Amino acid sequence: MGMEIMVSIVPDSLLVIIVTYNPDLQLLKKNILSLLEDGVTVYISDNDSKNIPDLQNTIDSIDNRNIVLELNKVNLGLANAQNKGILYALKKYFTYICFFDQDTVIPSEYANNMLREYKVAENEVYPSRIGMLAPNYYDYRLKEYAHFAKLTKHSYLDVSIEKQHFLNVSFVVSSGSFIKTEVVKKIGLLKGKYFIDQIDTEYSLRLLKNNYSIWVTSKVLLRHTIGNRDKKNLFGLTIKPNNHSALRKFYIFRNGIRTVKDYGVFFPGFRWLMFKRFIHDFLGVLFFEDNKKKKIKAMYYGLKIGKLSIDNWSENEFFE
After folding, report:
1. DSSP string for residues in 84-107
2. Residue pair 125/166 in contact by the 8 Å Cβ criterion
3. Residue among 185, 180, 184, 131 at smallest CA distance from 5
4. DSSP letter at 76?
5. What pLDDT, in 10s, does the model give residues 214-266?
6. What's this model's pTM, rounded to 2 decimal places?
7. What's the longest Cα–Cα distance across the chain?
């Protein structure tokens, strides 16, 4: 799956990719200005937002040549929109790529701090090949620090940052994460047909399958959350319903079961992890979320379609 593209010739250059869809323009502008202070290039890939004129005016008001605005004529989905930014990074010989969700609050000096940590990690975790480096996360809705999954042979461990500088994990979310373009050239682009959800899960597994490692640094913290998640108690079990729409439930389950089929044989522990996540999501909908019937139907249909070969998926397919 390699790409015949020349090795980067601009040392330490970084492209930050932000995918937008009806974004909060005030937050977006604040994030862009924060990133530009670090001297990086910001690539905005917009998925046919309703506020495109205002978005264009916001970008124009910043008046900086290190901003690239790509206006997609239709909603390409998260993966394809990110892939456009990745291809731009490869074409322009950037060394690093960083991804951000549009609703992430980016702290000052984030890019420079993560670049520094990447170089430290390359020395400290040698000879392990770094596939991706992510910050530690603080969920501002749940008011807790992130827990990460670390796959074992037949199961997984729930791990979190304690006193260590770098934590070896199996999965990270894409927002705030860093990857080198030379790694992307070797393992390929994101799965466009996933559209949204499980994109970072599949990519993490692809990195691991290709003998790359994934790390979290304790020295950089990012405020982040997933959906409108809250914490509930169900017969002594902690359930964190994310309150996603039925459409998102479809993508989560379709892409999730497809990823299990593609990687479960290589990582048996991932099968158990996803089984528990599916049960968790089902219980969250059944006991705590609204539109239960529609969401459960979406989850069932997602599992059904996900078992098919990805080549048999239709674009933006959904259930009736």
Report:
1. HHHHHHHHTT-SEEEEE-TT-BPP
2. yes
3. 185
4. -
5. 999 999 999 877 767 788 999 888 999 989 999 999 999 999 999 999 999 99
6. 0.92
7. 58
